[in-house]
Amino acid sequence: MKLDQLQLNTKYLDSVNKEFYQLLDATPLDDAFLISYNKKLCDEIGLDYEECETQEFVDFINGKKILDGSIPYSMVYAGHQFGSFVPKLGDGRAINLGSINNWHLQTKGSGLTNYSRQGDGRAVLRSSIREYIISEAMNALDIPTTRALAIIGSEHNVYRGAFDIQKGAVVLRASDSWIRIGTFEYFARTKNPKKSLSQLADFVISENYTHLENDENKYEKFFYELVDKTAVLIAKWQAYGFMHGVMNTDNMSVSGVTIDYGPFSFMDYFEKHCICNHTDFEGRYSYNNQPYIAKWNLFVLADSLSFITNFENLKQYLDTFFSLHERAYLELMNKRLGLDINLSGDRNLDLILKLLNALENSKIDYNLFFYKLSQIENIDDFSSILDNCIDPTQMQNWLVDYKKALLLNPRAQNKKCEEMKKVNPKYIIKNYMLQEAIEKAEESDFKLVNDLLNIASNPFAKHEEFERYAKATPLEFANIKLSCSS
Ligand code: AMP
Ligand code: MG
Q1: Low-confidence residues of the chain, pLDDT below 70?
Q2: Ligand 1: residues within 6 Å at CB?
Q3: What is d(CA 303, CA 429) in angstroms, rounded to the nearest whole number?
Q4: Per-residue pLDDT tens for 438-471?
Q5: N or C: which terminus of the chain has fewer CB atoms within 10 Å of its end residue's CB?
Q6: What is the DSSP letter of 474?
Q7: Which residue out of 91, 176, 250, 260 is catalytically annotated?
Q8: Ligand nearest, relative to CA of residue 127
Q9: What is the model's pLDDT at position 162?
Q10: Pairing state of beta strands 103-108 and 94-100?
Q11: Which residue, among 195, 184, 286, 301, has the nearest Cα to 242 in the 3D structure?
């Protein structure tokens, strides 16, 4: 399809009252240029590659070209940020362009909106590159996520501190929804919450839960399904060592996808209480807290939905969150370990908890451990793992137990490797890799951005030129905290 054939739909504007959005034009960046576009997502949307190499495509992302059917708008929402309620947030730097085949397109960094508060409406190159690449990495690991179609850079100065002058960039993001728990919180605090909330919930259901449209308990069931999806999402994050970093309610999607990437990290060395966000002093969003926070956020949603549902029913369903989360986590961890979950009375919970301790004490790169394990052909030789441990003692003991678990399943020896390989990628995108790509990009060299995008999209493949990225994160870059400045 040609760019001009993309026919966008702005149903949100017809679904809710005017007070919930602002119609506006982007403020284009100066001297914008294309940095990269994502062929995989082009295929999914049906956009021809050549279209992305035109000036028109840059103009489209930069807000200078409006496609057919598009009515650009920003949405208002509220949110609990680090546990404190902020009554009015919103797309302070994002503009929605409309949707095509349920891909809701949105630019991030497009200038001031009514919801910019003290911000400048801009996004800098570094955070834009991080979001662009990591959303593809998540997708390739089958972790539900928003996506990114392209990124443009510019010569536009953006100030992030007295001595920190950056260049503005825009990422064209795509998601099945941009509605957040915080959107429901905002609607619940308006004059006629019942009416507004049912409009919002109806919109979400019509976009993301279509099978519930004619169900008499559609609002409750929407909540139940989101509880299920979120439990699975967090389980996947944790099984791959992912930390979001800012799980505020305005950064939690009502379609159950990972949304709004900031100081995220794929953990380098396993630490239960790892914190990736430099400003998260109390570890509210630490690795281990993520399921608790997700449940807390869903409780906030239940509270908002209480105007149009039976709150007690929602609360009761929410109580299943931890068991759903545990089940999904154990399923994926068993897969990653090549074990048959059904052969163990406790679904190998004890073995997995022991593994986490062994990982923490042996200081082996978390995802490298799984990759090496999936490559082992002789279960009497675990040297490729032990050689990567700084202190192998606990790991050695754990491997004895692991071997016993493996031997419970005679099928395992043959089939194990193939199944394991599908969930244990050779490459995980770490912060230090993104940092290298950012530093090159800041010197106008975008090759590594494109190479990393390729690795992120194909993490199970061999990338000969990038063997170094298949190794453990160098210690000096391991488990560092990042700031939110973006
Ligand atoms: P985030 O931390 O990116 O999830 O953003 C939290 C809130 O701050 C959202 O309402 C954003 O739109 C807003 N925000 C973040 N950065 C900016 C910025 N540079 N300009 C305007 N609003 C911003
Ligand atoms: Mg956000």
Answers
A1: 410-416, 484
A2: 89-93, 115-116, 119-122, 246, 251, 260, 262
A3: 37
A4: 999 999 999 999 999 999 999 999 999 999 999 9
A5: N
A6: P
A7: 250
A8: 1
A9: 84
A10: antiparallel
A11: 286
